[in-house]
Write a structure and sequence with these properties.
By secondary structure, this protein is an alpha/beta fold. It is built from eight helices and 15 strands. The strands form four sheets. The protein has a five-stranded parallel beta sheet, sandwiched between helices. The chain has a five-stranded antiparallel beta sheet with strand order 10-9-8-12-11.
Length: about 240
């Protein structure tokens, strides 16, 4: 039975090398090649390959952001020139991890591991819990969300504040509000605590967007943003703000 494969790498030479290595394996069909993360997300949805050769450092979206946006959790062989990711990749129980430059023999070993893993479709995949943990705990530079079938990438420095609304959050950034299904506490763990402060049980504030703190009522406070919008601040949130600034 043939396996379908997708190659994702921003370097043409790297993609060509993987093609050459795969040419020796008649049971692998390359169904797509991608040179950036956004393209990879689209191709994963379009052709659902069984095997993905995924570079971690790519333009537009990183390899890990591709996994988050696509929901892909299995059949992934990481490829990268950055060995700092090696331990993390193995902790994820990915199929394998190829550190550039890699030889045909090392590539073939990874491919054999993939064949064994993909040959057991009924077996549970141990990668998912570890991968979900890493994706939820990594420090974010950008927030990914889907709206009406489109993937949006929001740089965290553009975020003014984030508001909890029942089972989702509202991300207020660049004069727009974006809805995402995620808890405020979960997102808080992924953001830089020196920049984003939990000023209220329902509000996470980018203090770089704050102009002043004003008293409201008896011992209440509000944070006034640079554009004049006001965010409620609880007593505990006020203490956190004083410590942060």
């Amino acid at each position: 039975m043939k396996l379908t494969a997708l190659i994702a790498d921003d370097e043409e030479l790297a993609r060509r090398l993987i093609r050459e290595y795969l040419a020796r394996h008649a049971d692998i069909d390359i169904v797509a090649e991608c040179e950036n993360g956004l393209q990879t997300v689209g191709e994963l949805a379009r052709c659902s390959p069984q095997l993905v050769f995924l570079d971690i450092q790519m333009p537009k979206l990183t390899g890990l952001e591709v996994l988050e946006a696509s929901g892909r959790r299995s059949g992934v062989i990481f490829t990268t020139a950055y060995d700092e990711y090696a331990l993390k990749a193995f902790d994820l129980h990915a199929v394998d991890y190829l550190l550039k430059p890699f030889a045909q023999e090392r590539f073939d070993q990874a491919l054999e591991k993939a064949r064994r893993q993909l040959g057991r479709p009924a077996a549970p995949t141990p990668a998912a819990p570890a991968l979900e943990k890493m994706l939820s705990e990594r420090r974010l530079d950008r927030i990914l969300l889907r709206e009406r079938g489109q993937l949006h990438v929001i740089p965290v420095e553009s975020v003014d504040y984030i508001e909890a609304q029942d089972d989702y959050i509202l991300i207020h950034a660049a004069d727009k509000s974006w809805m995402k299904t995620q808890s405020l506490s979960e997102l808080e763990k992924q953001l830089d605590p020196r920049r984003f402060i939990r000023v209220h049980r329902s509000f996470l504030l980018n203090i770089e967007r704050m102009r002043s703190i004003e008293r409201q009522g008896g011992d209440g406070h509000v944070a006034v943003l640079q554009d004049g919008r006001r965010v409620p601040v609880s007593r505990a949130g006020h203490e956190r703000l004083k410590t942060a600034i």
